[in-house]
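sorry to bug you again but im stuck and you know this stuff better than me. theres a chain ive been looking at and ive put its sequence and its fold in C-alpha coordinate form underneath. id like you to explain what the C-alpha coordinate line says about the fold, in plain words if possible. anything you notice is useful, everything is just below.
___
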Amino acid sequence: MIKLAQNLLILTHEAATQKFAFVGSNGSGKSYAATKLGEEMLKTGVQIIVIDPVGIWHGLRRTADGTPSAFNVLVFGGLHGDLPLTSSMAKAIAHSMLVAIV
Protein backbone atom coordinates (compact mmCIF):
# COMPACT_ATOMS: atom_id res chain seq x y z
CA MET A 1 0.00 0.00 0.00
CA ILE A 2 1.13 3.51 -0.79
CA LYS A 3 -0.08 6.11 1.69
CA LEU A 4 -0.41 9.56 0.13
CA ALA A 5 -2.48 11.22 2.84
CA GLN A 6 -4.36 10.37 6.03
CA ASN A 7 -7.25 8.72 4.18
CA LEU A 8 -5.72 8.17 0.75
CA LEU A 9 -4.17 4.76 0.08
CA ILE A 10 -3.28 3.27 -3.30
CA LEU A 11 -2.53 -0.40 -3.92
CA THR A 12 1.11 -0.68 -4.95
CA HIS A 13 0.55 -3.17 -7.76
CA GLU A 14 -2.21 -0.99 -9.22
CA ALA A 15 -0.13 2.19 -9.04
CA ALA A 16 2.79 0.46 -10.76
CA THR A 17 0.76 -0.12 -13.91
CA GLN A 18 -0.87 3.29 -14.19
CA LYS A 19 -0.01 6.67 -15.68
CA PHE A 20 -0.51 9.73 -13.51
CA ALA A 21 -0.95 13.41 -14.33
CA PHE A 22 -1.20 16.24 -11.83
CA VAL A 23 -3.14 19.27 -13.01
CA GLY A 24 -3.84 22.49 -11.16
CA SER A 25 -3.00 26.16 -10.85
CA ASN A 26 0.36 27.55 -9.73
CA GLY A 27 1.04 26.85 -6.08
CA SER A 28 -1.73 24.26 -5.70
CA GLY A 29 0.66 21.44 -4.70
CA LYS A 30 1.01 19.52 -7.97
CA SER A 31 4.77 19.10 -7.69
CA TYR A 32 4.59 18.15 -4.03
CA ALA A 33 1.86 15.56 -4.64
CA ALA A 34 3.65 14.09 -7.65
CA THR A 35 7.03 13.79 -5.94
CA LYS A 36 5.35 12.35 -2.84
CA LEU A 37 3.71 9.66 -5.00
CA GLY A 38 7.03 8.97 -6.73
CA GLU A 39 8.86 8.71 -3.42
CA GLU A 40 6.28 6.33 -1.98
CA MET A 41 6.38 4.18 -5.13
CA LEU A 42 10.18 4.00 -4.97
CA LYS A 43 9.98 2.98 -1.30
CA THR A 44 7.92 -0.05 -2.28
CA GLY A 45 10.29 -1.03 -5.11
CA VAL A 46 8.19 0.26 -8.01
CA GLN A 47 10.25 1.63 -10.91
CA ILE A 48 9.18 5.05 -12.17
CA ILE A 49 9.96 7.25 -15.14
CA VAL A 50 9.31 10.97 -14.79
CA ILE A 51 9.24 13.70 -17.41
CA ASP A 52 10.32 16.75 -15.43
CA PRO A 53 10.37 20.02 -17.39
CA VAL A 54 10.65 22.04 -14.15
CA GLY A 55 13.75 20.27 -12.82
CA ILE A 56 12.69 19.33 -9.28
CA TRP A 57 12.73 15.53 -9.27
CA HIS A 58 16.47 15.34 -8.66
CA GLY A 59 15.46 16.12 -5.08
CA LEU A 60 14.62 12.44 -4.62
CA ARG A 61 18.38 11.91 -4.35
CA ARG A 62 18.45 13.69 -0.98
CA THR A 63 16.52 13.44 2.27
CA ALA A 64 14.96 16.46 3.97
CA ASP A 65 18.18 17.11 5.91
CA GLY A 66 20.31 17.00 2.72
CA THR A 67 21.89 13.60 3.23
CA PRO A 68 21.83 11.12 0.32
CA SER A 69 18.62 9.11 0.02
CA ALA A 70 18.35 5.41 -0.71
CA PHE A 71 16.94 6.10 -4.18
CA ASN A 72 19.14 5.56 -7.21
CA VAL A 73 17.67 8.28 -9.44
CA LEU A 74 19.06 8.92 -12.92
CA VAL A 75 18.43 12.43 -14.23
CA PHE A 76 18.61 13.42 -17.89
CA GLY A 77 19.14 17.11 -18.65
CA GLY A 78 18.74 20.16 -16.46
CA LEU A 79 21.10 21.69 -13.94
CA HIS A 80 21.37 18.47 -11.92
CA GLY A 81 21.45 16.03 -14.81
CA ASP A 82 23.71 13.01 -15.05
CA LEU A 83 23.53 13.13 -18.83
CA PRO A 84 22.60 15.95 -21.22
CA LEU A 85 19.14 15.85 -22.70
CA THR A 86 19.75 16.51 -26.37
CA SER A 87 18.39 15.08 -29.59
CA SER A 88 21.72 13.33 -30.18
CA MET A 89 21.26 11.52 -26.83
CA ALA A 90 17.79 10.15 -27.67
CA LYS A 91 18.95 6.66 -28.59
CA ALA A 92 21.18 6.31 -25.51
CA ILE A 93 18.43 7.59 -23.21
CA ALA A 94 15.84 5.22 -24.69
CA HIS A 95 18.26 2.31 -24.31
CA SER A 96 19.04 3.16 -20.67
CA MET A 97 15.31 3.36 -19.90
CA LEU A 98 14.73 -0.07 -21.46
CA VAL A 99 17.61 -1.55 -19.49
CA ALA A 100 16.18 -0.07 -16.28
CA ILE A 101 12.72 -1.49 -16.97
CA VAL A 102 13.80 -5.01 -17.93
Q: What stands out?
A: The chain has two domains: 1-46, 49-102. The chain has a mean pLDDT of 81.
